[in-house]
Here is the input.
Amino acid sequence: MKCGVVVFPGSNCDHDVYHVLKHVLEQEVQFLWHGGSSVSDCDLIVLPGGFSYGDYLRAGAMAVHSPIMAAVREHAERGGRVLGICNGFQILLETGLLSGAMRRNQSLRFECRDAYLRVERADLPFTEGYRAGQVLRVPIAHAEGCYIDTADALDELEGNGQVVFRYVDANGGDATGEDAAKWNVNGSARAIAGVCNAAGNVLGMMPHPERCSEQLFGNDDGLALLASAAGVAATAVDPERLSA
Amino acid sequence: MTVRARVTVYPRREILDPQGKAIAGALERLGFDRVLDVRAGKSFEIVLSDNGSSVEDELSQISEKLLANTLIEDYSVELLESDSK
Here is the structure.
């Protein structure tokens, strides 16, 4: 699959995503400059993590008005795949391609650690390499990842099955009770870690699958996500690299 | 002619404002025990050319399109002064 990684001023996970797509999954990848007006012939567009435009105003708010975003929006509206990771998720929320908004983490701290995610849906182009209910360990690193929306909008998301990943405890249990803040790392409403649009071709998530896609780093729980997104069957990836 | 205006953006009332809460806590520790609540927001001073059309309308559009995320924030617009230079 042809993949494009958008580079905004301040993106800092663009090379990580590029590396996994290119060298681990052996796909055709190119960087797409924020000032460009086309996504070329890419099938998958990744909005990477980082601090686009220095997080000025609100995380993601300035990037929305980059020239490239009009092309990304068109690509999404045509049904093309768009994956937003961390700052990329914040940008997708600001564009309105995904619903909801981000507030400062409830801890008021920049949280940088592993989070446990439960795969709520394994029938999306992004998650078909997993099984529903599977628990993944994926690193997070952000200060503004507390996902919120109105109660009605949250009900609608849940009803439509648009909640794709949820923060859970290490055993996959709900992040509730006394330890809720330990597992729900940023205090997100209903412990939501990732959502998709109604059509399922746009996914936004705060955790970083590209940071856990090789056993060299001690964790490759995220590889199946990037593999699925890039249209690589999980079975086609060297099993040495992929955990069940 | 120019118009100077101020747009203030605050987290909506019904939304927990952890930053404001933290500031309120710090003020309490400093001994300002009359402080009951703090909300932290942002303020923008904007100078516009006055071409006769409504400045307020323009500022509302500016706020809705960029300055505020109306899902989580409210904004208010205040005209500060006109300059006829």
